[in-house]
Amino acid sequence: MRGPVRRLVVLLAVLGLMATACGPAKQSTGPVEVRWFCCLGTGDAPELVTVEKKVVEDFNKSHPNIHLTIEIVAYEAARDALSTELGSNSPDIVGPLGVGGAEAFHGQWLDLSQLISDTKYDLTQYSQGAVDFYKVGGEGQVGIPFAIYPSMLFYQKGMFSEAGLKEPPHKYGDQYEMPDGSKVPWDYDTVAKIAKMLTVDANGVAATEAGFDDSKIVQYGFEPQRDDIRGLGAYYGAGSLVGSDGKTVQIPAPWEAGWRWYFDRIWKDHSVMTQPIFESTDFNPEGYPFCTAKTAMEVNFLWSTYCLGGAGNSWDIAAVPAYQGNYTAPLNADTFRILKASKHPKEAFEALTYLLGTGSKELLAAYGGFPARTADQDAFFKGLDDQYPIGVDWQVAKDGVEHPDVPSFEAYMPAYNETLDRLITFGTRLSTDENTDVSAEIDKLKKDIQAIWDANP
Asked: CA Rg, the chain, in Å?
């Protein structure tokens, strides 16, 4: 080795030793990039995007270690867009979305349990029922409550008074007083009896009286939440179509009982309207008959308050009926979730808790959501009181959160969309054909869904 070259090598070696002794050179790093994907649920309307971007801007100002960005994809294209991104460039946070939207990506959501523990995140600010709603068997705590929509029984006080009936109990566990003074459980058997008394034809004759004309009904006694036949069954009890092996169809016994009850009220008692009448814009212009005072009782979610302007000034809410002594008030809920594919789960959780916390006031106001955080609920109901100043007992809605359907009726099932189509056909059959053999139809439903699942393993 020649002299000059040798001296250069020695010099470089010495410099290397000095660098090692002084430690590694510090590199300047920017904030961690976290992406929020929207919108598998609400969130893509221009006025909502404005609020969302403001929340992102505020977060970035207060969190210099993280740079949050939001990706807005129209609802109609969001599912396909997220599917594509999961295979290449996954976002970190997705929301707001409900159970149905989340189940389109079943198994993709991060269990937040460890992050909740590590950061000592306070779950006691939510009701236990709302927290448990996001505990999914085999997946863990896949979400933290954000916006919740408990269900309850809406009823017309004036219709009850006119029929000589006591109002339904507001407190879960209380009994109902019949016209003869007897106390009975507030359950679906009781509801079936009083719904007939509250069903009236054009001549003012009730369904319990002689001369009742079921072809000229102007007031129905009861209306179920019929948007999803699984949800209709869930009011009788939580359950899942998926067996323990994840591939065998089962029909939850409470759902079957609920479906039979529904069928009998339509075709035997005439206290629940048929599907053609329900879909008639002449009779039911608002989509929910309670909203035009055509029904004495209706079980529905809190979000249905949007259309109650036409329900008059004599309505209130009560506890949902029980089945076999158990109360189930199915819950709709939206939140934000973190994907397992996130490369920065710790930072994503920090952003997530901001959306659920500091940013939630603006977001919930924009989305029209009922706050899952119990400390924020009274202010929400104050807003509803301003809208409907008739003295509604909103405590019933709060209490309903403690009786959620776990697992959710919207939870995972194989071949989700195709199965849902078959369920819609089944529900339509029950409400349009009085000659339906319900037992045979349920057996056929089970076989058809199993065939769908077997063809889509």
From this structure: 28
